[in-house]
């Protein structure tokens, strides 16, 4: 499993509503997870860069929830912005299941592909809303 693939599914899981994950995951959870770290919430420092590539600076703090579990020998981690511990636990369980090579392809098609499509649609809808309120400014040239 390469890092970019895992980042892809973790991004899709973290940006999906917890209700959607609660509907998708339970049918695939045949084994109960062994919790290495139950959900806990804390603060994380966000860093930015001047001009996007310059010197780092501390932007501020954001609350995050995290959880870690083990299912069938695979350790799954879940991180999500905010204080929703249940969301972090669902992400951790999905992460552990997606690491199983026997079920990986099936779960990517059943979970990640639809979640990514829904995320793309939400982004497109927000973009359309923003475009509808766009104001065009122009300057008239004087004296010519």
From TrEMBL:
Please name the GO terms that the record assigns under molecular function: lyase activity
Pfam families reported in the protein's UniProt record = PhnG (PF06754)
| Keywords assigned by UniProt, alphabetized | Lyase
InterPro entries, alphabetized: Phosphonate_metab_PhnG
Protein's name according to its UniProt entry: Phosphonate C-P lyase system protein PhnG
Source organism of this protein record: Chromobacterium piscinae
> Gene name?
phnG
């Amino acid at each position: 499993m390469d890092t970019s693939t895992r980042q892809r599914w973790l991004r899709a899981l973290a940006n999906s509503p917890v209700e959607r994950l609660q509907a998708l995951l339970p049918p695939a959870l045949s084994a109960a997870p062994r919790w290495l770290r139950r959900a806990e919430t804390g603060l994380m420092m966000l860093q930015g860069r001047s001009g996007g590539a310059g010197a780092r600076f501390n932007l501020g703090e954001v609350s995050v929830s995290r959880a870690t579990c083990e299912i069938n020998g695979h350790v799954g981690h879940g991180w999500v912005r905010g204080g929703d511990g249940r969301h972090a636990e669902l992400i951790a369980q999905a992460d552990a299941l997606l690491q199983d090579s026997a079920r990986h392809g099936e779960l990517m098609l059943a979970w990640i592909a639809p979640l990514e499509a829904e995320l793309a649609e939400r982004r497109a809808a927000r973009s359309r809303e923003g475009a509808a309120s766009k104001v065009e400014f122009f300057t008239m040239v004087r004296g010519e």
